[in-house]
Predict the 3D structure of the following.
Amino acid sequence: MRLGGARCEHLIRTSERGVLATVHPVRGVDAVPVCFVIDADRVAVPVDRIKPKTGGTLQRVRNLEHDRRAALLCDRWDGDDWSQLWWVRASLELTEGDQEHQVRTELEAALRQKYHHYVDQSFTKLLVFRITRLTGWSASASATEPA
Amino acid sequence: MRLGGARCEHLIRTSERGVLATVHPVRGVDAVPVCFVIDADRVAVPVDRIKPKTGGTLQRVRNLEHDRRAALLCDRWDGDDWSQLWWVRASLELTEGDQEHQVRTELEAALRQKYHHYVDQSFTKLLVFRITRLTGWSASASATEPA
């Protein structure tokens, strides 16, 4: 069944990790798991210095330079129990240019609060998106928070 | 670190659920969690009759009619322990036309073996893709199977 806006917002806010899908000029789409925070109608996805990178500019960043549209998917998968499945998808658009200093500072603080790994860490880059659409689905009316 | 082809294949084969990203004509990308099986260089994603649908043709199917390219992402997220993170992504292209009867029968049998929910079930549709590229990343050399 379709989830209402408030339920979608609650479920995506309480999710730890999401999948960021971006537009790839040749392959059509790319997808990668990401950490993120939500603040009002904004989503911030950091490029961190902790998880080891292969080097160079990340493909997700190159994709977004080429096309600002993206999607963030959060879901619950409980193995055998399909009654608790749900997913929420935020359609996104990368915001133009650099963020105001205060906005960036607030989003970085929210990331450090959500993920203790980021305490005392600086970020290589902060991708800030505007949510353009929020939709969700659940297998039952009793779908609960991420396990 | 980048994962080799054999490791990618093992991890994606032993994953229960993936995220299917497709090209959307307006939003750029869509993403949705899916059940799937892999057989050689093919991926089959069923449209089943179990999980309740909102009605009409699913957006993922309409997207694929418009653009055959897609991606399937599988990953491991262990909450606080970031040392065990990994992801594998298969870039896909929907195969042309209907599958030969035998191929379809084999893929449906593999789905029923992987997901006991599908025993005695027929599928509304079977999306069959060819894998065009397989890439993966892990936080450490010891990345293990999905939890």
Q: What stands out?
A: The domain at 5-136 of chain A is CATH 2.30.110.10 (Pnp Oxidase; Chain A). Helices of chain A lie at 5-13, 59-66, 101-114.
